[in-house]
Amino acid sequence: MLKNLTKWDQLKLMQKVNFEPNIVAFLCNWCSYAGADLAGTSRMEYPPNVKIIRVMCSGRVNPMFVINALQEGADGVLIGGCHPGDCHYVQGNYFARRRMAVLKKLLDYIGFDERRVRMTWVSAAEGKKFADVIKEVTEDIRKLGPMQKIRRKNNW
Amino acid sequence: MVDRKKLQDEVTRVVERDDVNYVVGWEKGTYGFQMTPLFMFSSDDVNKLSFNPLCVHNLTVFPMLEEKLPLRKGAKEDTNKIGVIVKGCDSRAIVQIIQEKGIERERLVIIGIPCSGVIDPKKINKNFSDKTKVLEVTDDDKNFIIKTDSKTHKIPKDELMMDKCKTCEYPNPIIFDVLIGDEIKNSKKTDNKEIETFEKKNLEDKWKFWEDQFEKCIRCYACRNVCPLCYCKECMVDQLNPQWVRRSVNVSENTAWNIMRAFHLAGRCIDCGECERVCPADIPLRKLNKKIEKDILELFDYKPGVNVEDKPLLSMFKPDDPEEFIL
Amino acid sequence: MEDLILPKNKLSDYINKIKSDYTIFAPIKKDELTYYSQIENPSDISLDFINSKYPPKSILFNQTETLFKFKHGLKAEISFKEFKNSKNVIFGIRPCDAKSFFIVDKLFKDDYVDPYYSSKRENTVLIGLSCNLPGKNCFCTSMDGGPANAEDVDILFTDIGDKFYIEIKNIKGENLIKIGENLFNKPKDQDKNKLKQIKKKAEETISRKMNTTGIVDELDNIFDNRFWKDISMKCIGCGICTYGCPTCHCFDILDETSLREGARVRVWDTCMNPEYTIHASGHNPRPARMNRTRNRVYHKFNYYPKNYNVIACVGCGRCINECPVNIDIIDVITKAREVKT
Predict the structure, then answer these.
(1) How many CA atoms lie within 13 A of B159 on its CB side?
(2) pLDDT, position B173
(3) Does the global pTM surpass 0.90?
(4) For residue B66, is pLDDT > 90?
(5) Do A154 and C261 touch (CB under 8 A)?
(6) Are B228 and B159 members of one domain?
(7) Does the beta carbon of C66 lie under 8 angstroms from any beta carbon of chain A?
(8) C276: burial class by Cβ within 10 Å (0-12, 13-18, 19+)?
(9) How many residue contacts between A and C have a Cβ separation below 8 Å?
(10) Which end of chain B is more exposed for a tag (fewer CB within 10 A), N or C?
(11) What residues in A contact B266, CB-CB < 8 Å?
(12) Are B116 and B263 within one domain?
């Protein structure tokens, strides 16, 4: 039965059977993306559920990105930025911090679990921290289950 | 209470200035209890002006709606001013827009009227039949006095007043060039009880409530158009490249629209209540915006539309902003 | 076929009888607002309303309609919707809203017959409900209609107390009535008198009138007049009037895609939005609100009558009730007639 499906559909079926969370991570180019790179080159193991989108600065992350990610099928969203004071563009991470604080409270008020949207400071030297963060976030979201609430149904 | 003659005299003085194009005020509407915005270009127009507790519109949206069409060759830009009549809450919108550099202070002539509360059009239409001929509406300390062609009704303010007025902390305009009427001593305080009760519900109940509400949304964008602070040249929902919010009407897109509009008003919404008043589907939009207002006061100690010198909320930061949620 | 009487307590039985063959849309009350919606249970029907918040045009002309779906691949697959010939009944539609279908038909069935609209329109039976108490802003009598106008419905119900007086207008209605034959009685003289009384009272209750004689020529003369700038300065360009209007029919067509599949979707659009006329070059032929408000009035009272011989307004008054800044179409037309060129 499985052989008659395309490889893509096989994968989707397997996903339904054991829930593997889909996590989208917006990582800032200079710190967290480099940190993720370091985790990779140091051959550190971390769950493969995260899909990384590189942005130049965490301040680039518009809350619309987060909502869109949740609509398109992400079960969780992670925003990674430089430590406060170390932003390559001086202030971007401060603005991102403010925005995420407001967004998380708003999402909780609407009825989405605010643990689905996480933020983290990971510097370019913290490969291990990145791997630990991904492990923690993946486990948390695995416990929360799939995000169905505003998923785009595409049942035209 | 505002003396109509005094109001009209002051406004005439503003309208007749050379550097003022027109003044926006209110006049009697075409049916029932309606009032409607009035644009006064000359002193003849000012005769129609009146102010009473039915004047619920926030007129500060009109200076922001002015279209700046391309100029003809050799024509100079029009630097004349626009006059606008504001109540207490409306003036906060102007303060907030000036804070964000959305408009220059010199472009406006602000005529302020202290206001102790306006009547909710939905509530008053329930109390009176469709055939009522309204002659005059005024108020005293405790009641709204409604004179119809059959009798004079005295109704306690609490029954007819808009919900936003019950917790209004700024009855006097914060910014004005001319003030008409006496300053009102403020006796009301913000009440966050409803928000706090809702916050304590569990996630499933909260989502069920909002899903029902957002299902009603028809995406007419009246909330966006009537808001004085929604003045983006290109709104995110009209953007097609990339398209963030699809134009299909379903719960997913409606939720994205409403959440993002509430977010874009974080630190900017001054709770004039217009969005909730105009919504044809009766969605409780103030509930969303007030939640953000409460949060930003707790997290960042910021109140929108109060001080012109303040920096806008999301355009500035403090090194010790709360970050317990960050890993 | 002759008139009939249906006692109110037999209405649920009738609805249950026709439910097996027809999908029924009827007014339901949700949070104090009345909407037309598909019903499963006749007890959901609420006939205690003046008119619904939104017109029933959304039943035949959906707000979001999929035109076709497509899938990526070596051969792109395009799949059209099958037009199921499911039979619909709209129960309790007001005469003004029924007239709006007649008006919009002329456009959707013009040189190109819109299959998405016509397939539903042909299979829909309209059971009208005359207005006993018109609303404060109703002016259907000025627009060639009336609270008990039965020209555009297949069956007309009138509430005469504890029964409905039924008038059958055509063969479509007759076939629908035949399904519940034994539930109906013959009307007595007192019923006929009550009917006349109610119709007369309803017409007298309508207090707002709009004079539309020669409006097409009058509007032709004042197109460039400053009047339109004055009247539209307070318009905030929202779109409530268009979405609430039973005859407004403009739409936008967009593609929505996900990674491997997508669909072409038709959605309602409003001419009050500046994006409605913006060109790919960035030029907008209707740049100011004045242009757009003037266009809406002209479309209804000048362009549509020129093309199809009928004014695209039924006098339901929803735009007047809902407009946040009280732009009143009766007021606009009355003032337009008084403009001195």
Answers:
(1) 12
(2) 95
(3) yes
(4) no
(5) yes
(6) no
(7) yes
(8) middle
(9) 12
(10) N
(11) 102, 106
(12) no
Supply the mean pLDDT for chain A: 91
pLDDT tens-digit readout, C59-69: 999 999 999 99
**Does residue A116 sit within a domain?**
yes
What separation, in Å, do the N-terminal and C-terminal C-alpha atoms of chain C show? 53
pLDDT tens for residues B119-169? Answer: 999 999 988 888 888 898 998 888 999 999 888 999 999 999 999 999 999
Q: Average pLDDT, whole number, for chain C?
A: 92
Domain count across chain A: 1
User: What end-to-end distance do the CA atoms of chain B give, in Å?
Assistant: 56
Contact yes or no for B292 and A102 at CB 8 A = yes
Contacts of A99 in chain B (CB under 8 A): 314
Residue A5: inside a domain: no
Measured CA distances, A12 to A7, A17, B278, C268 (Å): 9, 9, 44, 34
Q: What is the ipTM of this complex?
A: 0.92
B263 with A103: Cβ contact below 8 A: yes
Interchain proximity C258–A8, CB inside 8 Å: no
A17 has a pLDDT exceeding 70: no
E strands, A2-43, in order: 23-28
Does a structural domain hold residue B307?
A: yes
Question: Structurally, how many domains does chain B consist of?
Answer: 2
Residue A156: inside a domain, yes or no? no
* A-B C-beta contacts closer than 8 Å: 113
Q: Is residue B74 part of a domain?
A: no
Host domain of residue A134: 25-144
Residue B84: CA count within 13 A, CB half-sphere: 28
Q: Which of B252, B259, B317 sits opposite A98 (nearest CB)?
A: B317
The residue of B245, B255, B289, B324 whose CB has the most chain A CBs within 10 angstroms, and thus the best one to mutate to test that interface, is B255
Closest-CA residue of chain B to A97: B323
Show residues of chain C in contact with A72, CB under 8 Å: 258
Domain containing B96 equals 4-64+79-179
C258 vs A contacts (CB less than 8 Å): 72, 152, 154
Q: Smallest Cα–Cα separation from B301: which of A63, A119, A101?
A: A101
Domain boundaries, chain C: 4-62+83-205, 215-250+271-338
Task: For residue B280, give how far its alpha carbon lies from the nearest alpha carbon of chain A (Å).
Answer: 21
What is residue B272's predicted lDDT score, i.e. its pLDDT?
A: 92
CA distances from B301 to A138, B310, C308 (A): 34, 12, 61
